[in-house]
Amino acid sequence: MTEAWKKYKKSKQNAKKVILLAKGKKQKEFASDLNDPDQQNEIFRVAQQMVTERQAITGSNCLKGVSGKVIVHCVPIKSGPQNK
């Protein structure tokens, strides 16, 4: 390995650590807001925003939790008239 490659790998590893720490800090901040009654509406706003973003990307509004279970069920999209 060249010296430049080693520097690249080390800086990439450091960047991942910084991002991981920032995400953890934001998650703890969000979790502490769950106990505040004034911030409880924020949770619903964020959840609705997530549904909207995923619907724009995938075309359906399914949300799965960390465990993999569906939180918001998908509504099937009908493509045309039903043939009987």
Description:
The structure is a single chain. The protein has a two-stranded antiparallel ribbon with strand order 1-2. It has one domain. The chain is 60% helix and 6% strand. The mean pLDDT is 76. It has 84 residues and is mainly α. It has 2 helices and 2 strands; from the N terminus they run ααββ. A hairpin with a 5-residue loop joins strand 1 and strand 2.
Secondary structure class reads mainly alpha
Q: Biggest sheet, strands in spatial order?
A: 1-2
Q: What is the mean pLDDT? A: 76
- Give the ordered list of helices and strands: HHEE
The overall strand count is 2
Q: Which regions have little confidence, pLDDT < 50, spanning 5+ residues?
A: none
Write the layout of secondary structure elements.
Blueprint: H1 3-33, H2 40-58, E1 63-64, E2 70-72
Antiparallel strand pairs: 1-2
Key phrases:
mainly alpha, 2 helices, 84 residues, two-stranded antiparallel sheet, 2 strands
Summarize the structure.
The protein is mostly helical. It is 60% helix and 6% strand. The chain is built from 2 helices and 2 strands; from the N terminus they run ααββ.
